[in-house]
Amino acid sequence: MQQTSQKLKTSDWLAAWNDGDLSALDSLMADDYTRTSKATGAVVDLAGLKAEIDGVRQAFPDLHTTIDDVVEGEDTVALFWTSAGTHSHEYLGVPATGLTVTTRGSNIVSLQDGKILKESVTWDGSELLAGLGILPLRGIATPQIPETQSEGAEPDMEIMKAFNRQFVTGVTVVTTKDGDKARGLAVNAYCSVSLEPPIVLVCVQKSSSTYPALFSSSHLGINILGASQRSTVGVFASKSTDKFAELDWHEGPNGSPLLDGSAASIEAEIQERFQAKTHTVFICRVRHAEVGDTAPMVYKAGGFYDGAGLAEL
Ligand SMILES: Cc1cc2nc3c(=O)[nH]c(=O)nc-3n(C[C@H](O)[C@H](O)[C@H](O)COP(=O)(O)O)c2cc1C
Fold first, then answer.
1. 205: CA distance to ligand 1 center in Å?
2. Which residues does 196 contact at the CB level (< 8 Å), separation at least 6?
3. Which of 102, 170, 214, 284 could form a disulfide with 268 if both were Cys (CB 3.0 to 4.6 A apart)?
4. Atom 4 in ligand 1: which residue has the minimum CA distance?
């Protein structure tokens, strides 16, 4: 049953979250109001709170919050609440999943002259995502959630680029279907995780135009390019709207596009989608594999090489 507070006009608080009536908060909050997230340590003012509510309500338009319990102290009130909503638009970089999520949290508010001066919240946006089964990697929050504390110095970007240039990989094309349309992008952030069970991972930038379709797919294709597919890399590293137009390809058992002439192709079922700031790490269980005898393409420091011509050490 919905609870109310003697000391706090919870109807204004609910009007903001449930009806989007953000102006209801103006009379509820003191001038120097702050809200601190216990999960991230982030502190926002009233404008920040309104932006947060707006973001949640855009992503979950049918959001409904109920106050489950109210515990009143002398100048404090603790609110325990439950929210439910359908994930209908992008939230914290995660495309709509259409899933309904229920999340619980609590707010401890300090009152000054009947208004909220400080609010400490045991909830943050990533808990909503966790409710959808989408997990932020520990210590690598989603872009909108500030990091709580610096974990020490980091090398600058040029050193990291130089480091990456020393690493040799193959090149894959990661594919999916967007309705009937085949989509894909070039990816070298591929890794085999385990053989038993057969688990692999790929990292995909959220700004990729393939990303929303990939995110909402149950399966994806991973094609290890062969040495004769140099022009294919250019196509899949581009923003072309029909990358498959000039290519021969076939579908895996679950519909993922597999490129003919690849050194090897797999179709895998997406099992986890970890949020890592600008990228999402897809952890996938392999369901189907095709291996050819074409030599693979080799990629190092921006150059592409024939995997058949490597000098053995
Ligand atoms: C060799 C190579 C490796 C790449 N690796 C990745 C990668 O691991 N993850 C990623 O998100 N993009 C990677 N890219 C960049 C994408 O392929 C590129 O941004 C592409 O234009 C995305 O296309 P889309 O926006 O149509 O999806 C790579 C590009 C090249 C050429």
1. 8
2. none
3. 284
4. 187
